[in-house]
Design a protein that fits this description.
Radius of gyration: 19 Å
Distance between the termini: 28 Å
Oligomer: single chain
Helix content: 25-40%
Shape: globular
Number of helices: 9
Structural class: alpha+beta
Order of helices and strands: HEEEEHEHHEHHEEEEHHHEEEE
Number of strands: 14
Length: 304
C-alpha cells in the first residue's frame, strides 16, 4: 500500500503507528476524572467488514473507506461502511431470511427488537455507503447489480430517512439475508468522547454480481485491501485508524477466504470493548482492556 500523505489531519498526533488520537483527549479525560464532564449515552451503530476473494490466494481483501478530513469524528481515518441505527427498524415488520431473530438475540446478548434494528442498520448502511445490498427475493437468492437509477433513487431516500428500510424491502419484494452476515465484535466509544457509539461489527462476503462504489458523502476514497497490508500501513504510520478498526483488521488476517472468515464469526467474542481512562502519578493512562497495543500515557502538558 503506498504511503498516504493525506491520512493524518493536521494537529492530530497518532500513537502508536497510525492510531487516531485527538489532542483534546487528555483534557477531556482529566475532566471525566474530576467529575466536571458527564458522559453522554452512546448511540447504537453497526458497521460491516465486506470481504471478497482475490486471484492467486493470499486471503480476502476488505472494503474500506477514508473519512473526509473535514469530518468532526475521526476525520482522515480509514473505516468500514457503517453508521447509526434507525429506531424505525426496531418495531417494523421486516422481510427476513436466515437465522431467526431469537437466535440472533441470543448470539448478541440483546432482545429481538434490538437485534433486528442493529442487523437492519448493518445492511442498510452497507447499501447507503457502498452500494452493496445483502437482500434477495428468496432465502437463497441475492439481488444483482444495484447501480441503476431506480436503485440510486431508493438509496438516496434511505440516506435522507425519507424511506424506512422495511418499506424499501417491502416495495421491492425483498428479504434481508441475515445469513450472509456474521457478528464479529462490539466496541463502545470511550466515556470522555463528545460523540459516543455502541458499534457492532459484522463480516460479510461481497455478493456475486454486485460491486462496491463510493456512495458516501463522508468518504473521499475507498479501497479494497488485504487486512495484513492495511495493518502494515497502520504500523508504519501511513494509514490512520481508530483502535476498533485496526483490531478487527488484525483479527481477519488468519483467514484464507471470505467464507472462512464468515464461518469463524460464530466463535468471535462479542463482549463490548470500552476504553478506560485513569490518572496515575500525574499521567493520564488510556487503555482498552484486552488490547494492550493501544495503551497510551499522557503527561501533563504533553504526550508520551
Amino acid at each position: 500500500m503506498p504511503k498516504d500523505p493525506h491520512g493524518q489531519p493536521p494537529g492530530e498526533p497518532t500513537a502508536p503507528g497510525g492510531q487516531w488520537y485527538p489532542p483534546e483527549w487528555p483534557d477531556r479525560i482529566r475532566a471525566l476524572a474530576d467529575g466536571s464532564l458527564t458522559p453522554v449515552a452512546p448511540k447504537r451503530a453497526a458497521t460491516v467488514m465486506l470481504l471478497r476473494d482475490g486471484a492467486g490466494g493470499g486471503g480476502p481483501a476488505v472494503h474500506m473507506l477514508r473519512r473526509r478530513a473535514s469530518m468532526a469524528f475521526a476525520g482522515g481515518a480509514y473505516a468500514y461502511p457503517g453508521g447509526g441505527v434507525d429506531p424505525r427498524d426496531e418495531d417494523h415488520r421486516i422481510g427476513w431470511a436466515g437465522p431467526a431473530l431469537a437466535t440472533w438475540a441470543a448470539r448478541m446478548g440483546t432482545d429481538t427488537a434490538s437485534a433486528q434494528a442493529i442487523i437492519c442498520g448493518a445492511v442498510r448502511e452497507t447499501f447507503e455507503e457502498a452500494g452493496v445490498l445483502l437482500a434477495g427475493e428468496s432465502s437463497d437468492t441475492v439481488v444483482g447489480d444495484t447501480t441503476g437509477d431506480d436503485w440510486e433513487a431508493d438509496r438516496r431516500a434511505l440516506v435522507a430517512r425519507e424511506l424506512s428500510f422495511a418499506d424499501f424491502l417491502d416495495r421491492r419484494g425483498l428479504l434481508l439475508r441475515s445469513d450472509l452476515l456474521g457478528a464479529w465484535a462490539r466496541w463502545i466509544t470511550p466515556e470522555f468522547e463528545p460523540r459516543r457509539y455502541d458499534t457492532w461489527f459484522f463480516v460479510a462476503a461481497l455478493p456475486a454480481g454486485q460491486r462496491t462504489r463510493n456512495a458516501s458523502t463522508e468518504a473521499d476514497r475507498t479501497v479494497w485491501i488485504r487486512p495484513s497490508e492495511a495493518a502494515a500501513g497502520y504500523d508504519g504510520g501511513e494509514l490512520l485508524m481508530m483502535p476498533p478498526t485496526i483490531s478487527t483488521l488484525r483479527s481477519l488476517e488468519p483467514y484464507g477466504s471470505a467464507a472462512e472468515a464468515l464461518a469463524a464469526a460464530a466463535g468471535q467474542d462479542l463482549a463490548p470493548v470500552l476504553a478506560r481512562a485513569t490518572l496515575e502519578d500525574g499521567e493520564v493512562v488510556l487503555s482498552w482492556p484486552g488490547h494492550d497495543e493501544f495503551t497510551k500515557r499522557v503527561r501533563q502538558g504533553g504526550t508520551s
